[in-house]
Structure formats: structure tokens, C-alpha cells
Amino acid sequence: VMVAEALDISRETYFAILMDRACNGPVMVGSPQGGVDIEEVAVTSPELIFKEEIDIFEGVKDHQALQMAKNLGFQGPLQQQAADQIKKLYNLFLKIDATQVEVNPFGETPEGQVVCFDAKINFDDNAEFRQKEIFAMDDKSENEPIENEAAKYDLKYIGLDGNIACFVNGAGLAMATCDIISLNGGKPANFLDLGGGVKEAQVYQAFKLLTADPKVKML
After folding, report:
1. Per the residue annotation, which of 14, 90, 153, 157 is the catalytic one?
2. Which of 90, 115, 127, 184 fits as disulfide partner to 97, beta carbons 3.0 to 4.6 Å?
């Protein structure tokens, strides 16, 4: 049981730090319109979405954090509070090997405090060896049994609804294979990436997993 203090929210904003392939690194994304689906805001009010690239060598600079706080509509002493929170969130992002730290709402209380009221964090699976305590909390009971079995052999498996099994070396090629199957009227049964440096035992286990799937009709 987790017990947390109940807080009133006087204003809601949106803030996130995430990896952006187009920028080859982390970016800050913010909007003064929080507490709602950010994708909806991007469609209806794109001018309210603010994006700032982060230099991986220098981190979030003071002026960047302050500017984002201004963009989010924080005023007076709350502006510096928000900037400090933004820098702490980036430090968290690095410390836990996150691929995304999303705070929605990132808001303020009637008493004049900036608070992360709700957050969603995604972790880099490749950093599990550094983040054993975090990954130990993963509730694998929510996964498909075949996904848990694949993970035992370092195989990246995602189940899909089709009947054509995909057995591919490389995530990019695996996605392209799924796309080609779909474009030609078929339906992929899975996404399976063997990854680099694959060993004979992994190939064997991958074949076992795919052929044991009752919905698979071809490979």
C-alpha cells in the first residue's frame, strides 16, 4: 500500500524529457496546456508545444530550464522553482537510464509549490545490467508467456495478431519485414529481433518459440 499526500492543483502544465532520434539525443518537450493528452494538443494547438534539444555533454543549462519554465507559464518565484525541477528531472533521466520521463500534470499548488503530480517513465532495456533494482520491480505477469520465455534468451519478441512468423536479425530489418508482409496482404504474427552476436542456442530457442505458437501458419 502506498500512501501519498493529497494536493490541490491550481494550474496544470505538461513536461517531458525523451530520446529523439531526429535530434540524435534527448530533448525537452513542454506545453502550458497540461492534464490532457499531449497528442491532442499537438493537433489542435501546435503553437503551445515547445521543444528544446539537450546537449548530452553539458546537460540542461540554466537558461534553457528558465526558458522552458517561462514557456510553461510559471511566473515570479515559481519560475525558478520550475527550472530547478526541470534540471532535477534531467538528472533523474540520466541516473536511471530512462528513454522518457513524462510529467503530466507538471503543475503548481494554491500554496505556491511546483509539483510533479503524475509521471510516466520508460526505461532503456539495454541498461538492465546497470539498473537491476529497477528492473526487478517489473511485473512480468502482465506479459505474454512467450515474451517472458524469449527474454530468458535475450531475444526481443513482441506478439502480434497475424499468422506469419518473422525470424529476423536486426530491429530495422524486422520492422521492414513486418511492413512488407502487411503491404502484401499478410499479417505478421510477431516481431522477433535476434540482435547482434547471436549464438546458436538463441537461434534454436527462437525457432522453438515461433513453432510452438498455435496461431503461426508459416515462417
Report:
1. 14
2. 127
Q: Please check whether residue 79 lies inside any domain of the structure.
A: yes
Question: Which CATH number covers residue 15?
Answer: 3.30.470.20
Position 141 scores a pLDDT of 73
147 labelled catalytic = no
The CATH number of the domain holding residue 190 is 3.40.50.261
Domain final position from 97, 127, 157: 127
- Of the candidates 102, 108, 153, 157, the residue annotated as catalytic is 102
Look at strands 119-123 and 156-159 and give their pairing: unpaired
- Is residue 102 among the annotated active site residues? yes
**Measured between alpha carbons, how far is 165 from 188 in angstroms, rounded to an integer?**
6
The residue among 100, 127, 154 that closes a domain is: 127
Is pLDDT at 196 greater than 80 in this prediction?
no
pLDDT score of 197? 78
What's at 205, amino acid-wise? Q
Position with higher pLDDT, 103 vs 5: 103
Spatial CB neighbours of 188, under 8 Å, sequence gap ≥ 6: 160, 162, 164, 165, 166, 177, 178, 181, 182
